[in-house]
Write a structure and sequence with these properties.
With 296 residues, this protein is an alpha/beta fold. Helices cover 41% and strands 22% of the residues. It is built from 11 helices and 8 strands. The protein has helices spanning 10-16, 22-43, 54-62, 79-85, 101-110, 147-157, 176-188, 206-215, 235-244, 248-255, 259-273; strands at residues 69-73, 93-98, 116-120, 132-138, 158-169, 219-233, 277-278, 281-294. Helix 2 runs parallel beside helix 5, helix 3 crosses helix 4 (79-85) and helix 7 (176-188) runs antiparallel to helix 11. The chain is globular and about 60 Å long. The chain starts with 9 loop residues before the first helix and ends with a strand. The model has no long low-confidence stretch (mean pLDDT 94).
């Protein structure tokens, strides 16, 4: 069979490819995190394994005082909030916001600290009529389509000299857990995501992260790099877990391309994974960037 030739200019072709819709993206994000919240919490975040070793580093960097008022943006199931709560006293306050109701319910149940509240709120529409001393955000910034809007609104609800601490994943080659399977998916199904969809590596370049935070008005911005290791088990265990958690929001679309495509993706991913394999088990390096900055 002859392969089809697209007889269009690149510009026209590009117009045909679905472009990123931030509203639809947020609806999908919310639904996805409602589905995966429990797995995410109990298999990863709460155990502080692999990249979640950053929770301790991020909170250390935030230097929480016992009477601090702290906002945890995109708090998810509350792992960062829980760590923060260990440092707060009776005059301290903690608020966590997230899009996912199921994640927030897990956070509420897992934290014993009295002065904390978890609210369903979009980070792009933060609204409080009081101010905070510290704002934390772990593995959330890359999911905000208008990240500058979020950072600028954080500046408005921080006290003067208040501190922001943000953790994000490194670039694709520095976090092969994602790229080992995601690259073959993109190769075999290039339109799996609309053009312009934010990726988990969006702020993985330290210079770009620094300038993103500084651009929003924060001063004395620093970025620290951390290297962690994540051991997902055998390739089969990694594949199953990835497809049902990390790739949950795109799995149905991948499956709709049929068994052959799925098998090709798996074969390529297995080849990519082999360089991280020893005695049948995988060990992925994982770079995490933690940025801090101050309100002026
Ligand atoms: C990778 S999880 C990180 C959760 C938590 N900070 C942690 O370290 O475990 C990303 C979280 O961002 C949340 N999120 C994504 N977009 C958001 C938005 N626009 N506003 C608030 N939360 C959002 C998701 O619901 C999810 O809980």
């Amino acid at each position: 069979m002859r392969s089809a030739i697209i007889n269009l200019s690149f510009e026209k072709f590009e117009k045909m490819t679905p472009t990123f819709d931030p509203i639809q993206y947020k609806i999908t994000t919310k639904a996805n995190w409602n589905t995966v919240a429990s797995d995410y919490h109990y298999n990863w975040a709460d155990q502080k394994i692999g990249p979640f070793k950053s929770t301790t580093e991020l909170v250390k960097m935030a230097d929480i005082k016992s009477d601090d008022k702290v906002l945890d943006v995109a708090c998810g199931t509350g792992v960062v909030s829980k760590e923060i709560s260990q440092f707060l006293g009776p005059n301290g306050r903690l608020v966590g916001i997230d899009l996912s109701r199921n994640a927030l319910n897990i956070a509420r149940k897992s934290i014993a600290f009295q002065n904390c509240t978890f609210i369903e709120m979009d980070a792009e529409n933060i609204g409080f009529n009081f101010k905070f001393d510290k704002v934390t955000c772990q593995y959330g910034l890359m999911f905000f389509p208008d990240s500058q809007k979020v950072l600028k609104s954080i500046g408005k609800i921080l006290n003067p000299k208040g501190m922001l601490v943000v953790a994000v994943h490194g670039l694709a080659e520095e976090v092969p857990y994602f790229s080992t399977i995601m690259n073959p998916i993109l190769e075999h199904i290039p339109d799996i995501r609309p053009i312009g969809t934010p990726t988990v590596h969006r702020f993985g370049n330290p210079k770009e992260l620094e300038s993103e935070v500084a651009k929003a008005g924060f001063v004395d911005v620093t970025v620290a790099l951390h290297g962690f290791v994540y051991k997902p088990g055998t390739f089969e265990e990694y594949w199953e877990d990835y497809m049902h958690s990390t790739a949950n929001s795109i799995r149905v679309k991948i499956e709709s391309h049929g068994k052959d495509v799925m098998e090709k993706i798996k074969k390529d991913a297995k080849k990519n994974a082999s360089k991280y394999e020893e005695k049948g088990k995988l060990a992925f390096p994982w770079t995490v960037l933690i940025a801090s900055g101050f309100n002026h």
